[in-house]
Amino acid sequence: MKVVQAGGQKRLAAYLVDDGDRLPGAHQLRSRLQSRLPEHMVPASFVRLPALPLNANGKVDRSALPDPEALQVPKSPTDAVKGDLEEIIIQIWRKVLSHPHIGPDDNFFDLGGDSLGLVQAHAELQQSLQRTISITELFEFPSVRALRQHLSGEVARPAAFSELQQRAKRQRAALARPRAVGTVGK
Question: What is the arithmetic mean of pLDDT over 168-186?
Answer without folding.
Answer: 66
